[in-house]
Amino acid sequence: MKPHNKNLQWHTNVHIYGLSLAIGDAHFLIDKIKAGDAYTEYFYNIDGEREGEPEGFVNEVDNIIGKTVSCFTLNNGGLGWYPVFDSYAKGKEYLEIDGYYIDHGGATTTPYFQRPKCFFEKEHIAIINSLIEKSLEKKPLFTLSFPSKKILFMETKDKVQFYSEKEVEVDYSKPTSKVYDQLHKIYEDETIGFINAAHPTTEYCYDFHLDQLSSDKFEVYKVESLVKDVDWYAAYYAKYHTDSKDIYKRKKTSEEQRKWMEEWRSRQPLAKEMKEILELSNYDPDAPEIESFKMNVDQYGFLHGYYLKAV
Questions:
Q1: By the 8 A CB rule, do 142 and 71 touch?
Q2: Are residues 93 and 171 in the same domain?
Q3: Do the bridges between strand 142-145 and strand 68-69 make them parallel or antiparallel, or are there none, so unpaired?
Q4: Residues 221, 226, 231, CA angle at the centre, nearest 5°?
Q5: pLDDT by 10s per residue, the chain, length 311
Q6: What sign for the dihedral angle of Cα 289, 295, 298, 301?
Q7: Does residue 244 fall inside a structural domain?
Q8: CB 15 within 8 A of CB 206
């Protein structure tokens, strides 16, 4: 197998407010939006109303193993920031992407934008490349088809979600390619005054992401811990994402922090259910951080993310 492009760089953290993150062919997703009611008619199969399709979000990873699809969705049960790394095709630098690493663990362990300095450094990129190399020893989970050779990351809503100080609207009645051009122009416009959740920047939008690809087909690989051990997993995310210094020491949660956590949970789509689960599990806000990493492993295994490799 041809080795992957190791010239990875962090590009963005894509934000979702509480639904799922959809990643797929930009024109395909725009067509679903243009058809109307994209959330209920395509992205989410409510109570199995669409016969023959799994209940829940469309094309979740476990439901598309071995298939070729035009998009897939990632769900972390609430709001999240998905770190996205990419690489440019040789000779097409800053023009066409030939690889993406999407850090799912980064979204589930670290529900905020900020990352420590070491997250962006060469040492971290080297570890990510090692994770990817190991994942490539196995078969791809599924294949993504990109007839338009354009990719779009968006929350699973009726339209591409973003907020701005200037009043900006996308005209979805236009032809699909023109809608993409509108979105691209908006994404590149640093004067709009983007309003990003819990992040002060106004020059860049983190609620969606799009780009040009080097191929119309990408294989998707599951990326897991180099060592399938809770301590290794926790040490990695503690250092490169949460910037935690002593994950085995009990914390001292202030009253202000407790109130913030309660307010944050109350804003989530499944706030009531989350509260009930925490009560049943005897949730302890002062528990050492290693416990939260253990919970993450219990729910997702040693999953780090997904690597999209141009074919």
A1: no
A2: yes
A3: parallel
A4: 130
A5: 789 999 999 999 999 998 999 999 999 999 999 999 999 999 999 988 898 899 999 999 999 999 999 999 999 878 899 999 999 999 999 999 999 999 999 999 998 999 999 999 999 999 999 999 999 999 999 999 999 999 999 999 999 999 999 999 999 999 999 999 999 999 999 999 999 998 999 999 999 999 999 999 999 999 999 999 999 999 999 999 999 989 999 877 788 887 887 887 787 766 777 677 666 666 677 889 999 999 999 999 999 999 999 99
A6: negative
A7: no
A8: yes
Task: Give backbone dihedrals phi and psi of 204, rounded to 5 degrees, phi first.
Answer: -125, 150
Sequence-distant (6+) residues with CB within 8 A of 260 are none
The one-character DSSP state at 268 is S
CA separation for the pair 97, 100 (Å, rounded): 8
Q: Which two tokens stand for residue 101?
A: 């690493």
Q: In which domain, by residue range, is 274 found?
A: 250-287
What number of other Cβ atoms are within 10 A of residue 135's Cβ? 22
Q: Is the separation of the CB atoms in 211 and 97 below 8 Å? A: yes
Could you tell me if residue 237 is inside a domain? no
What are the Cα distances from residue 189, in Å, to 22, 38, 184, 281? 23, 26, 9, 46
Q: Catalogue the E-assigned strands of the chain.
A: 9-16, 21-25, 44-45, 56-57, 68-69, 71-74, 80-88, 97-103, 142-145, 150-155, 208-212, 217-224, 303-310
φ, ψ of residue 45 in degrees (nearest 5): -95, 95
Same domain, 98 and 176: yes
Structural domains in the chain (count): 2
User: Which single residue is written with the structure tokens 């900006």?
Assistant: 168
Q: Cα(206)–Cα(194) distance, rounded to whole angstroms? A: 9
Do 71 and 211 lie in one domain? The reply is yes
Tell me if 154 sits within 8 A of 22, measured CB to CB: yes
